[in-house]
Amino acid sequence: MEEIFHKINEHEQVIFCNDEGTGLRAIIAIHSTRLGPALGGCRMFPYKRIDDALEDCLRLSKGMTYKCAAADVDFGGGKAVIIGDPIKDKSPELFRAFGQYVESLHGRFYTGTDMGTSPEDFIHALKETNCIVGVDEVYGGSGDSSVPTAQGVIYGLQATNKALTGSDQLAGRSYAIQGLGKVGMKVAERLLEEGGDLYVSDINTEAIEQLHIKAKKLGSAIKVLDSYEIYSAHADVFVPCAMGGILNDESISLLQVQAVAGSANNQLLDIHHGKALKDRGILYAPDYIVNSGGLIQVADELYTPNKERVMQKTKAIYTSILNIFEFAEYHGITTVEAANQFCESRIEARTRRNSFFSHMKRPKWDIRG
Ligand code: NAD
């Protein structure tokens, strides 16, 4: 109880949303608006207890403050969770009700898709609020964010190679990729094109088949491993692109790689696993910097969407990762501690101007009936 109060107190605002008519039960947490309005996705999950939903929302919301600071976008951290089963509990009315709660925050919170929600869900919320990001281009959004996210992972891998070998070449190195979804598949294809050697794992056999075809076209081959074997692959870099919490006591003891750099969110089960990686001599590229390409895109969309500008901004991931590695080495701390300290000092150094919100507003998408 003490702990949860402490976490709530770290936040600027936490609201509980109940709408009897639609069955909406949600929590919106705004961790910080110091760098700008809070930005963070909306997750839908059948949490068993309200405490679990709250805990998840608070953790993710705080994480967004750091992620926004690292990506140097003018947003703070926030997050929403909807308590429900994404397979059977969704309805247009539920997302409209959610949109009304977001609108009631008057531009303090921008949201979009996360685990369990899709851009289509937010088309309904968009009828109630303009504080929605990441919907399809025809609705005024910036579309698929996995493109810049995957490009960001490539920059993260180049920076990691540079730190380890002195060269940022992707060719001639081996990579163990966990998850060939929207991000992982794009990363895998690019690494194959560049002449990387791939070990891959995915529970979806169609994804594996798709990559086999791509590899064949390029005259190369991939080595397929099961969900457990991927951790002990004899590769240079482990590239987690599936679920979070995969860097834990057991998996870290299995790793044979020199480094970890991938897109999955919250890869470390616990902060002390950053130290466990360091102790094993494994260089860790902090996930929230490596995977910030998608965030850069949705943050950018509130101006006039421009894909080239997004790709240009995403390039900064390369330098950020190298700076974090250097800072960690110099101070003898983990790369996660270095990244967190870097973000905290950036937040400290900034003051939000009162007029901030005015230039962020875009016209409400006019699709009301
Ligand atoms: P996705 O759902 O499209 O792909 C995930 C893939 O992982 C799927 O192919 C799935 O079959 C596979 N998978 C699931 N469990 C697995 C297991 N045990 N072993 C191997 N493979 C497994 O998701 P995505 O959009 O590609 O995102 C991947 C990760 O990157 C997630 O953690 C996500 O939160 C994070 N991320 C994504 C974006 C984005 O723009 N899409 C941005 C930032 C972070």
Describe this structure in words.
With 369 residues, the chain is of the alpha/beta class. The protein folds into 2 domains: 127 residues, Rossmann fold (3-Layer(aba) Sandwich), CATH 3.40.50.10860; 201 residues, NAD(P)-binding Rossmann-like Domain (Rossmann fold). 43% of the residues lie in helices and 14% in strands. It has 14 helices and 12 strands. The strands form 2 sheets. Strands 1, 2, 3, 4, 5 and 6 form a 6-stranded mixed beta sheet that branches. It has a 6-stranded parallel beta sheet with strand order 9-8-7-10-11-12, sandwiched between helices. α5 packs across α6 and α6 packs parallel to α7. The C terminus is likely disordered. Bound molecules: nicotinamide-adenine-dinucleotide.
Topology record:
Layout: H1 2-9, E1 13-19, E2 24-32, E3 38-39, E4 42-45, H2 50-71, E5 76-83, H3 92-103, E6 109-110, H4 119-125, H5 146-165, E7 174-178, H6 182-193, E8 197-201, H7 205-217, E9 222-224, E10 237-240, H8 249-254, E11 259-260, H9 272-279, E12 283-284, H10 287-290, H11 293-300, H12 307-314, H13 316-331, H14 335-349
Parallel strand pairs: 3-5, 3-6, 4-5, 7-8, 7-10, 8-9, 10-11, 11-12
Antiparallel strand pairs: 1-2, 2-5
This protein binds nicotinamide-adenine-dinucleotide.
